[in-house]
Amino acid sequence: KEKEEVILVRNTRPITVVETSGTIKLCSEESNHHLWAVTFSGNKIVIASHHGIVDGRGSMPLRSSIIYYYCKERYDMNLEPGLNMKTMETPMDPEEYCYPFANAEKLPGYADAVVEENSSSINSYILHLDHKLSDQPGCCTVLEIPEDKFMAFCKKNGGTPNTVTNLLFAGVYEQNKTVKDSEVVMEIIADLRSGLGINWCHEPAVAGLTFNYGNYKDLPFDEQNAKLRTDLRTGVNHDNMLKLIKKKVMNLRNID
Hints:
By secondary structure, this protein is an alpha+beta fold. The chain has eight helices and five strands. Strands 1-2-3 form a three-stranded mixed beta sheet, with no helix packed on it. The N and C termini lie close together (about 10 Å).
């Protein structure tokens, strides 16, 4: 780090590959100061990567390529690369190493995307206090549902675990809210790669999208799921995406 900038430099030391059933610390002498490392034990191989350089989906091409080369060398297999798989011969696309929000200000309408902070919003856990479910702010409720029954319910209603869980909880909050004219808002973590047109980007490109439950509550439950799934894919609309990107960029500019 140099003043207000984080500088990435080429590390010529080898990637650490260690036989251990434990873990090694990234960005330390233990990992040769790399942000990723490999450990193995028995028939288990673990690839550890720092969230600062890659998120879950961004790491999949890397993992796919490593598994491809491992199987090819370990079992002397004549494999064909899978669809969309990157190999040593594949030219690197600029979007693979671009910063997800680097060109955000060039998007149409960016300057008009005002970030509005709603200071009157309250966390949903207030319902726990109001209904005497707990006297501790910040508590959580644990529901134990058999996985097979839950997944069957999701499939029957055309939803995913993500959409079904959010819609069910939002419905409970809607029916039990103590401030009757308040709005129930769902905040769902979503992958922004498609919306930004950078599907091969490795860097973290996820953020929270907000959805007003009032836009779903009057629909049959299967239609609620269908609409929320579509809205998650599209980021609801262009303005929502712009506000989200602007907030992300402004937060990054304020980082010490």
